[in-house]
Each structure stands twice: as structure tokens, then as C-alpha cells.
Automatic annotation (TrEMBL):
InterPro entries, A to Z: YbaK/aa-tRNA-synt-asso_dom_sf, YbaK/aa-tRNA-synth-assoc-dom
Protein name stated in the entry: YbaK/aminoacyl-tRNA synthetase-associated domain-containing protein
Annotated ranges, domain YbaK/aminoacyl-tRNA synthetase-associated: 20-137
GO MF entry, a single one: aminoacyl-tRNA deacylase activity
Organism annotation: Bradyrhizobium forestalis
Length: 150
């Protein structure tokens, strides 16, 4: 993923943190608002996969997303996710769809943040991006409101 970001000229800062196993704990460990941490959720859609990107402080509202994308939408299981993101630690899915050949859809509430943090593919590093860099990273991705604040 780092090579992909370099090739796309996406600038970011690396933020190391103690080992965490959930996006909420990662936000706490890095002293970052969960509203600024982009959580990537892997979905099965139309015979393939895609990512829904929402803030870590939110839950995906699958019925809202189904209304927009169609009923053929479901959460991917752990083995599917591990296969798609073989170079990442289990559960540390970066919000970088094109790097993995996946389409993404971005929740408006994360897209509006002045800076965005994403998983680096492990459970010990976050990448900090400016709003402009995150917008470049997610350029052409559809967006909308499909999450609810916890």
C-alpha cells in the first residue's frame, strides 16, 4: 500500500501507536477523534467486493446502503477479507480501495473532516492525511450518508 500511495503522490504522516484491535481503541491510542478515523468495511456486491468508508465513531447502516446500491449487498466474512488483504494484518483494512482493485463508497461524514486518518494495514500504525489528500485518494468514489453515530 505504501508503494501505491507514493505512486499516486499521496502525502501522509505515519503515526505509530500501541497495538490495538479495534478502530475505536486505535483512535483512543492516537488521541484522535473517531470522527476523523476512516474505517473500511468490506462488502460483497454484485459478485465482487467493495469498501464502504465510514468514521470509526459510526456504524454502517446496511439498509440505507442497500437502498442505494441494491439488495445484492452483504458484509464479507473474515476469510474473504483476509484473502483480499493478504498483505495486511487480519482486521487492519486500509481505506484504500484502488490499491486492492476495489471500488469504494465514502460516507459524507468522513469526507467532510479537515484531516483523516486511515489504517496502514497493521494494528500499530495510522496514516494521517489532509482533507485534500484524502479527497485525492477517494476521487471519483460515490458518496452519501449511510452511517449512524454511535
Amino acid at each position: 500500500m505504501h508503494r501505491y500511495l507514493a505512486a499516486e503522490n499521496i502525502e501522509y504522516a505515519e503515526i505509530p501507536h500501541t497495538l490495538t484491535m479495534s478502530s475505536a481503541r486505535t483512535a483512543q491510542a492516537c488521541h484522535v477523534s473517531g470522527d476523523h478515523l476512516a474505517k473500511a468495511i468490506v462488502l460483497r456486491h454484485d459478485g465482487g467486493y467493495m469498501l464502504a468508508v465510514v468514521p470509526a465513531s459510526h456504524h454502517l447502516n446496511l439498509p440505507d446502503l442497500k437502498e442505494r446500491l441494491g439488495e445484492d449487498l452483504a458484509m464479507a466474512n473474515e476469510s474473504e477479507i483476509n484473502r483480499l488483504f493478504a498483505d495486511c494484518a487480519p482486521g487492519a483494512v486500509p481505506a484504500v480501495g484502488r490499491c486492492y482493485g476495489l471500488d469504494l463508497i465514502v460516507d459524507d461524514s468522513i469526507q467532510a473532516q479537515p484531516e483523516v486518518y486511515i489504517e496502514a494495514g497493521d494494528h500499530e500504525t495510522l496514516l494521517q492525511l489532509t482533507h485534500a489528500q484524502f479527497a485525492r485518494l477517494t476521487a471519483n468514489a460515490p458518496h452519501g450518508r449511510f452511517s449512524r453515530h454511535d
